[in-house]
From TrEMBL:
Species name: Ruminiclostridium cellulolyticum (strain ATCC 35319 / DSM 5812 / JCM 6584 / H10) (Clostridium cellulolyticum)
Keyword terms, alphabetized: Signal
Protein name, UniProt field: Peptidase M23
Gene3D superfamilies, A to Z: Glucose Permease (Domain IIA)
M23ase beta-sheet core domain: residues covered: 189-289
MF GO annotations: metalloendopeptidase activity
């Protein structure tokens, strides 16, 4: 009876997640209470990411400002804590909730203590860590030498180490179109965020990883798929430019760094014929698939998340580019070095 009452209270928030006590199973229910899917395999099968920009930006700032202080705040933990407190409903978000959490942590309470009685914290932490876990950290980046503008120097930094998919200096617009209907080929939902821009705009690797797929797809046109080194995130960049969609140095299996040029914005796709512009408006389709188990890579259990607010957050870090007139390709202006990554390939 208590469990039924709990579900009735939470169900008003829409789809809910319940971690069964003593089990790794995850239940999904719709607003009628009907079970949609169950996983007993020990991995997450569904994630709804609805954290607003304001919450991410503030948690990120707290994390960065606390670096190397006695209490290091971790933005993923803080956002997972709020998600658990809100039952996944970030319409309840208030800035003061993060302030209060920061105060408790700085006063000596640990996240383990604060979440000890939160049954669903582990789920939200795993889900959010899969999305944001490698976004922040230490890295070295080239910057202009303040004493000689013609030279660069290396600078150590801590903070956002992923980049916008659109190069610095290039404009774009976007709106929250995740989940809207698409009909070409078959009726389906739009599983990404469309960034409207100009043909030829340099497209950047958001995160370091390995090029897992590139080529033509009748739906996405010329497209690129890049897997993060921890294999949890698959980035999908689609509708690239006709004739010269990819950077000349790109190939399947290549390792790319966050902020590298990988291709160019276009309007290809929605065609059974290769290299055809059949999209009405030039744009980049940008998507992120979460992979908790390899069986989810290409199946009915794929997990794609709404990137609208994440795209806004990524504008804090845009990679500058320089054109090579001989090759006609663009290259990043300032290089980056990340700490040694764990390769699992």
């Amino acid at each position: 009876m208590a469990r039924t009452k709990f579900f009735k209270i939470i169900v008003c928030f829409g789809l809910i997640v319940c971690i069964l006590a003593g089990s790794t199973a995850i239940l999904l229910r719709d607003n009628t209470g009907q079970v949609l899917s169950v996983s007993n395999e020990g991995y997450i099968k569904w994630v709804e990411y609805n954290v607003p920009y304001e919450a991410m930006e503030k948690a990120l700032s707290m994390d960065v400002k606390s670096h190397e202080k006695p209490v290091q705040l971790h933005w993923v933990e803080m956002l997972a804590y709020l998600a658990t407190r809100y039952g996944g409903n970030f319409k309840m978000y208030k800035s003061k909730d993060l302030d209060e959490l920061e105060a408790k942590l700085n006063q000596g309470q640990t996240m383990e203590q604060l979440t000890a009685n939160m049954k669903h914290y582990n789920y939200f932490y795993q889900a959010y860590d899969a999305i944001l876990g490698n976004f922040v950290g230490e890295y070295d980046i080239q910057v202009k030498d303040p004493d000689n503008s013609d030279k660069t120097i290396w600078q150590k930094k801590y903070g956002l180490k992923v980049f916008s998919p659109i190069a610095r200096g290039y404009g774009f617009s976007h709106y929250d179109d995740f989940g809207t209907g698409r009909s070409f080929g078959f009726t389906r939902k739009h599983l990404g965020n469309d960034l409207m821009g100009s043909i030829g705009t340099p497209i950047m690797a958001v995160e370091s990883g390995i090029v897992e797929a590139m080529g033509w797809n009748m739906y996405g046109g010329w497209r690129i798929g890049i897997r993060s080194f921890d294999q949890k995130r698959y980035y999908y960049y689609a509708h690239l430019r006709k004739d010269r969609p990819f950077h000349g140095d790109l190939y399947e299996g290549k390792i790319v760094k966050a902020g590298d040029v990988i291709g160019y914005l276009g309007m290809t796709g929605y065609s059974t014929r290769e290299n055809v512009n059949n999209i009405s408006t030039p744009h980049l389709h940008f998507g992120m698939q979460l992979i908790f188990d390899e069986s989810q890579k290409e199946s009915n259990n794929e997990i794609w998340i709404d990137l609208y607010n994440i795209v806004d957050l990524l504008q804090k870090n845009r990679s500058a580019v320089t054109k090579d007139e001989e090759t006609r390709d663009f290259y990043r202006t300032y290089d980056i070095i990340e700490p040694k990554m764990n390769y699992h390939f």
